[in-house]
Structure formats: C-alpha cells, structure tokens
Amino acid sequence: MKKKLKFIGLTLAATMSMGLISACASNNDNNVASNTASSTPSSTGQQDSAAPNEATKDPFELTLALPIIGATPADLPLVQEEISKITKEKINTTVKILPISIGAWNQQMNLMSSSGENLDLLFEFGQGYSADMAAGKIIPLDGLLDQYGAGIKQAIGAEYLASAKLNGETYGVPVYKDYTTGTNSILMDKALVDKHKIDVTSIKEFNDLDQVFKTIKENEPGIVPFSVGLAVPADKYGDYDRLGNRFGVLPGFDNGLKVENIFESKAYEDYLNTMHSWFKAGYINKDAATSQVSGMEMVKAGKAFAYFDGLKVGGAEVQSAAAGKELIAVPISENTYATTSDATAGLWAISNNSRNPERTMMFLDLMYSDKNLSNLFVWGIEGKHYVEVSDNTIDYPKGIDGTTVGYTIQTWMAPNPSIAYLRASDLPGAWELTAEANKNAIKSKALGFAFNSEPVKNEITALQNVIEQYRKALESGTFDPADKLPELREKLKASGIDKVIAEKQKQLDEWAASNK
To answer: Which three-class secondary structure state does DSSP give residue 362?
Structure first.
C-alpha cells in the first residue's frame, strides 16, 4: 500500500527549491551528521578543528560572498560581528560577509575573480560549479580537507563528498541537505479527497490518476483537476539520471552506464501521450503552456485540486503550510535515488583570490561542525532574531515575524543547518529523517560523474534553444505529440544531440575507468 501522508502547517525552510534556480530545494542533518556512516547525528554538534598555533598566529579577515534573494538583512552587520567573536577566539579570524543580490551574482563573481578583489569563500550554485572550476575561479580542496576539514568529512560523508569531485579533485563542499531525487508525488486538496471519497491507496503510478481527475472534473466545476504551469511533471518525473542535463541520460540510474536519448524513448512518448489525453479531457488548465503560476498557488486559491512534485524530507509539510490547507501526498514511485546533480546543487568553494586558503578552510570546517556558529549564520542572534521555546526548537520573539525580523537567509545555502535549531513549525526529527533518506537512497551508478559541456558548448546552446521552443507546450500536454514529437526529435538531431551524447558517453566511460 502506498504511504498516505497527512500534513499540518510546517515550514522547513531548507526544502526551498535549489533550482530556482531548483534549486532548489532543500535540507541537511541534525548535529554533525555522518551521512552514510550513521543515520542519526551526534549529540553535541560541536567539533573544534585542531588549528596549529603557527597557522593561526596572525590575525586574518575572511571575506565571504553570500547570494541574497530579496532585501539584504538589516541586521547582517550585527550577525557578522557575533560570528567574528567566535572565529576570532577559535582561529584568530574575523569574517566580512559580502551580500550580493541574486540578480547580480554571476556578474559580480566574474568581476571579483578577474580583478583579483579580496574574496575567500563563496557559495556555488551547482549549475555553474564545473564552469567555475574550468575558469580557474576556485581552487582544489583535497589537501586542505585532509589537514583542516575533519568536521566537513564527518558531516557530509565520504560518498557524497566524493560526488563533488571534478577531474579527480574536490573544488567545492556540498551543503548538507537531502541529496536524493525525492519522491515523485501527487499532492491533493484533502477536503476534496474526503468529500468525494477518493481512494488514494488505489494510486500506484502516474496513469492511475485518470479516474481521480475524472471525478473532480465531473463534480467540481471551476476547479482544474491537475494544475500545470510554472513547472511540469517532467521536470521531476522520470526514471533516469539526467547527467547534468537531459541531452543524454542514464535510464534506470544504471543501464550499464550506457547513455541514451530520452527524447527518442518510449517512456517519454508515453508520458506525453498521457499528458495530452488529460489536457484534451479538460483535466489540465488551458494556459498550462504559458502559465507562470505554481501548482501550489493554484490549489491555495481554490482553482485546482492537485499538482505534481518531487518531495524531499519535509517538502510536503512546507507546501501544505504554504497552501494554507491540509494536503494529502501520494507517492507514485517506489524508490528515491541520489545523483550528482542533487548532491551538488549547492556547494561552498574557496576563491582563487583567497589570500589564506588554510584559514578559510578552518572557518568552513567550523561552519559544518560548530553549533553556535551555525545558529548565528542560519537564524541570527538569540533574543533579537529568535527565542528558544524548547530543547533545540526556536520561534520568533514576541511581536516579530518573518516579515519584520532583522535577519534571515536562505537556509538551503547554509553549510550545515542540521546542527542549528529547528523552528517550532518545522517537521520534528527532520534531520534524522534526512540522514536516513541519504543513507537509504539508491545511488546512481553515475554518482560523482560531472559532465563537462565545454567541448560541445555550441551544440548545447542550439539544443537548449530547440527544447525551449517545444518543452513546455509538449510536456504540459498542450501539443499533440503525434504532430510535434517527430518535429522535436528531428530538430534535436539537426542541432547535434548525437554529438553531445557521444561526448557524454566518452567522458562517462573515462570517469568509470578512473574510478574502478
């Protein structure tokens, strides 16, 4: 029987999409998690990195570049000062946090790198990680990790840390989070499920939703059975490792490491036919190909019954709270997998401009292992930005809420929020569940492989242009695949998809040979 989930309003911020990027996204573990080594975190969250006196005898100011979504927190200077008090005592280092608007992030990082401006530590979005390595913007970390990164190694675990290797070297440390693909799920308005006595245990796979949608269509005028808009199910749904992009995938997350063209597959064609049949039946909103409204927003507004998502630990609770109503989530896939793309969606890297990589690594190690430092970075100052309401649980101070608090960051950017407090509204035991999910996930046979698109960058650009022309309309069910799928396949071939797949296969074979 499929697992039936009832939800209450919870707000695990770390599940915010890493792929907003994706980003998504997402999560971490509770007190120095040892990921693959243990499914439960340690009790203290404290680990003092042994820093030789000689290495820390001179004072150092470390510059940390942090992407900011929305307004820069007014109290960032106060939090920075408190962080520096800890790091000054432990490693004779003060910290300068450089907030940069997400809209200007890439430009600013390029300018700082090329000008040699002071920069030690920076957040890396997974999609730009290999390009920054190739451009020489970030440095290899293996030696530094061996000398100063014991806390990082314990928190992340060897297998997931290795997934960040590029050309055999580690250039970034993944943030601790849920490293899995998540569980493909349909999220439904519970009030309507109860009203129409929908048997959610009958939903085993994607095609089992026909009768459910038919019931809503016939009995709830004005409510779309299945909302598609900002995202389409194919963004998450699919039994394959994307290997960085969908221009050559690994079916079944294994396939003997043979890369195939997903757009030529029967599975992709079947998915398109199902979506188009639902669109013709009126189960999907008519503006699906152009809508920029999320499925959750449609359900929240009472305009839709259900939507699709890949749920990670706490994700359903977050969305239930955001929708302002109780949702029921039913998984439509049995397994969760761990891939390079999921494991390296967000990382921390040391800039090539760093004047002191050793001290920077000492600081980064503290961010993964020191509970007080993590709490400051994630939540701010106790009494001003949060109050402790019970053991390991916090809330806003009286008279303060999320719109008025003076400090907040995107939690999924924090190196290791698992050792920080949980909000009172968060899913209890979230990080223990995250550690368990990471441990039990089926590892893609290509976990650790990162495709370098540089040799086929022109073809990739051409292919992306083709996909953007067809993807949303086809994958939302709007286009008839009988007409448009052959057209898409032809244009992808003309744009060089076979060349890209051949290059990806070559690199994957070389990676596999070097990792035997």
So the answer is: helix
> How many Cβ atoms are within 10 Å of 480's Cβ, its own excluded?
15
SS (H, E, C) 155-197: HHCHHHHHCCEECCEECCEECCCCCECCEEEEEEEHHHHHHCC
User: Is 178:438 a contact under the CB 8 Å cutoff?
Assistant: yes
Phi, psi of 89 (to 5 degrees): -70, -40
Query: What is the DSSP-derived secondary structure letter of residue 415?
Result: S
pTM of the model: 0.81
Residue 383 CA to residue 441 CA, distance in Å, equals: 39
- d(C-alpha 120, C-alpha 357), whole Å: 7
Q: Which residue has the higher pLDDT, 167 or 10?
A: 167
Radius of gyration of the chain (CA): 23
Which tokens in the block code for residue 337?
A: 């997998």
Quick: pLDDT tens for 158-190: 999 999 999 889 999 999 999 998 889 999 999
* 366 in Cβ contact with 95 (< 8 Å): no
> CA-to-CA distance for 86 and 376, rounded, in angstroms?
10
What tokens does 94 get? 């003060």
Residue 108, both tokens: 């600013």
CA atoms of 242 and 269, how far apart (whole Å):
17
| Residue type (1 letter), 446 | A
The crossing angle, in degrees rounded to 10, of helices 481-494 and 266-280 is: 140
| HEC readout, 314-328 | CHHHHHHHHHCCCEE
Compute the distance between CA of residue 222 and CA of residue 240 in angstroms, rounded to an integer. 36
